[in-house]
Amino acid sequence: MWTMNMAVLHLPVYTVLLVGYVQAGVADGDVTPRLTFSYNAKERTAKRFSASGVVNFTTLHLSNEDKTLYVGAREILFALNLTDISEVTLHRNQDESYILLTLTVAVHMGNSRQEEGRVQFQRQRPAGKRAADKDCFNYIKIFLRVNSTHLYVCGTYAFSPTCAYIKTDNFSLVKSDSGEVVTEDGRSRCPFNPEYKSTAIIADGELYAGTVSNFQGNEPIIYKSLSQGTSLKTENSLNWLQDPAFVGSAYIQESLPKGNEVGDDDKIYFFFSEVGKEFDFFDNTLVSRIARVCKGDLGGERVLQKKWTTFLKAQLLCSLPDDGFPFNIIQDMFVLTPSPEDWKNTVFYGVFTSQWYKGASGSSAVCSFTMDQVVEAFNGRYREVNRETQQWYTYNHPVPEPRPGMCITNEARKQDIPSSLRMPDKVLNFVKDHFLMDSVIRSSPLLLKRNAHYTQIAVHRVQTGSKVYHVLFVGTDDGRLHKAININGKMHIIEEMVLFRNSQPVLNIELDTEKGRLYISSFSELVEVPIANCTNYQSCGECVLSRDPYCAWDGSQCVDIRQTPPNKAWQQSIVEADTATICNKVLNPRFAKSPSIRTSACQPITIPANTFRVLPCKLRSNLAVRKWEFRKTPGHFHYPSPEGGLVVVGQADRQENYECWSVEEGFRQLLANYCVRGEARQESTTFTGRSHIPPISQEEFIILPGEARSPHMNTKTYWNELLVVCALLAFSLVVFSLFVVYRNRSHMKSMLKEGECPAIQQKKPRTVGKPVENLPLNGNAVTASVSDHKGYQALNDNYICSTPPCSSPDNSKSFSESEKRPLNLKESHVEISPTCPRPRVRLGSMIKDSIV
Ligand SMILES: *[C@@H]1O[C@H](CO)[C@@H](O)[C@H](O)[C@H]1NC(C)=O
Ligand SMILES: *[C@@H]1O[C@H](CO)[C@@H](O)[C@H](O)[C@H]1NC(C)=O
Ligand SMILES: *[C@@H]1O[C@H](CO)[C@@H](O)[C@H](O)[C@H]1NC(C)=O
Ligand SMILES: *[C@@H]1O[C@H](CO)[C@@H](O)[C@H](O)[C@H]1NC(C)=O
Ligand SMILES: *[C@@H]1O[C@H](CO)[C@@H](O)[C@H](O)[C@H]1NC(C)=O
């Protein structure tokens, strides 16, 4: 029941505030996480691991066979017992290596000269590198399992990458008979510079790495080191890779199931962003790529000796469906394969950011691509470069047989080509120049988040009953985790958690599907969080509205479906969030068997008459709307507090009832119920009266200055006076402004005649102060997005001008233009700005057409 009394002023204001709030959420088009948990929130507890002096938890390798999490940090390796990663006490023993009491020795690579047989730390320190330079530490970049007994580890080792083997049973470095640690040259496997983005994967005992092979960092390479004999690599002179930043790799067993009629080979996929040379007159446009090689590739006999004969790449494009705005820089890729045999149903989930900015502080997108799309692109047309003009064209002529870049299949074997060594020269010569596929693998964002920079993703395939859901876990560069699910094409962020004490990027996410845990690392901390906490959904409505696939309502509580045996009583409604059917009893929660019953008995509050009190009401969901309900009585006074509470004033010897309800998708839940009683008192005891108030800790207690001394003064007269003053003030303001206009009428006229220029100038401060939504694509590229792509040339090439805030008239013109036509990508055009000498281009959906 809404009171009609004080309505004249407060009620409309309150309603407008509410409506305004709801509309802001919708119009923004952004996804609000339903729940938000602060660091170390008790509802979402995490186990933590950190060690003093240990930073840069750069690599994580989860081994369910060993029940161990292998962690590579700067200068040190850990093997953490999965039973409890946090219950580890570190001891420094005499030789400065770390001992983990519960399980194992953490191997301390580098810097410990006492350790016998260690390679000298300062070996080959590059000229010009200061000894204290932080880059001269040994950053672990590769930590993978080779076989059932050994792990392989590589570190940057002060710009001289080095690798070693570790025995898993006692977690010690493999030593030679003479007691020396067996090391291998890490070149072409591990980058020199710790900041370089590289990737590595071990498939069938062989290491495949995407990295750089020289100290300068300008020789990108995809490298396979055969267990015995020669290695394979990309051909550098042919520019197969253009300053790539690798974000991941995957091994997909496309030879399965055994004995199928295609007889294809297993493949290794690489994901990276690089300079898109096919857009070569759009200088330094970055593109995301998927590249692949075949496991059985042995290189060519005469042509492409010791080089890949199966290297092909295609563009991955994650762009907005409406205006084609591209999220062109891939940050991470998670490859979700239901089972090795079922590789055809693989889904590639990538997180992308943009080289350009749309929205005030950047946004990120999650896009997914299917295996069908990928196969289609690699089976489609090739592109060809004109070596003279350096322009790329679609290759429309017949291609040699067997199809260049394909793995050896039964078809090839029939033609007496059992391996790449027997591949005809004309096929290999073709592949040298036709490594880029013509079709672009497109997708539009599943999840688009403003003001978030996503860095990592993991995806869990959850089967609940007959339905399958893909739950996305996405990490941000400021240490948050989003758990999200796609419902009929719309994204729902189930929860957001702050993972680390300090804002630092999520570097790795490892998902333990068996135990239902996530291991997430950053610069200085490693956390373990359970994938869900169903206990925290305290009513049927919360359980259903959460749309959390891990949780189901069993009639009395929200249960974790992975921890209890399947039950017919379980009810879920992930798609519809149908609280009406599942929680029908709860529609009147006062009588429902739910924890909200606790608040349904009203909480008595006694305050001195004519004093104010804030009644708090904390929403349990960011998507819910708060509704206060109370009886209408004359002389009532109340208004909303900024935090969503209700400010009420005590009425002498009267009791008022205030209920705070949360409404979310039609589900109503009582959050708080107060009985406020005003206590009449003598003028002289105004202040001592306070001692009778039952202490309610977080609540404010306000006494209006005027009120306290004159309790007889009615609120009504107070407001009437205020109204009169306001009206008088407004009137005099209007009169004054009319007067000013009248005085300056001639000046105003001339200003209007001048036309556009003043208008443009007026817009300038807007773009300077708070960048608005519709900045031109090329207008506000900020260096942050450059560092996303950590290729060397990109880092050195200062191609993205830090945009000076509208320093020249030209600039301001381009700003205003784009405000009229926000991000109209169909009208791509080259623009030369005085501050950025190279021509830059609005990248648009028509980009393909403008190449030819
Ligand atoms: C789950 O939530 C409940 C209720 O908020 C809380 O008491 C419990 O500690 C949480 N459990 C975990 C593992 O976070
Ligand atoms: C991990 O810790 C548990 C409990 O402390 C212990 O039983 C188990 O053996 C440990 N695992 C390993 C691999 O050491
Ligand atoms: C595992 O790899 C290591 C290092 O290459 C090798 O010494 C060992 O024999 C291998 N073990 C097995 C069981 O293959
Ligand atoms: C680990 O085991 C190997 C043999 O399996 C042994 O040679 C080596 O000394 C052991 N290392 C440690 C640190 O115990
Ligand atoms: C190592 O951590 C520091 C912060 O502690 C960070 O600035 C640096 O970029 C990190 N380096 C790598 C290679 O992760």
UniProtKB/TrEMBL annotation:
Q: Tell me the InterPro entries matching this sequence.
A: Plexin_repeat, PSI, Semap_dom, Semap_dom_sf, Semaphorin, WD40/YVTN_repeat-like_dom_sf
- Where does the record place it? Membrane
Species lineage: Eukaryota, Metazoa, Chordata, Craniata, Vertebrata
- Where would you find the membrane-spanning parts of this chain? 722-742
What's the main place this protein lives?
Answer: membrane
* Signal peptide as annotated in the record: 1-24
* Record key words, sorted: Developmental protein, Differentiation, Disulfide bond, Glycoprotein, Immunoglobulin domain, Membrane, Neurogenesis, Phosphoprotein, Signal, Transmembrane, Transmembrane helix
Provide one Gene Ontology cellular component: plasma membrane
Report the GO molecular function annotations: chemorepellent activity; semaphorin receptor binding
- List the protein's name: Semaphorin-4B Semaphorin-C
Q: Give the record's membrane topology.
A: Single-pass type I membrane protein
User: Residue limits of the Sema domain?
Assistant: 34-531
Tell me, which GO biological process terms does this entry list? axon guidance; neural crest cell migration; positive regulation of cell migration; semaphorin-plexin signaling pathway
Question: Source species, please?
Answer: Takifugu flavidus
Record-stated family: Belongs to the semaphorin family.
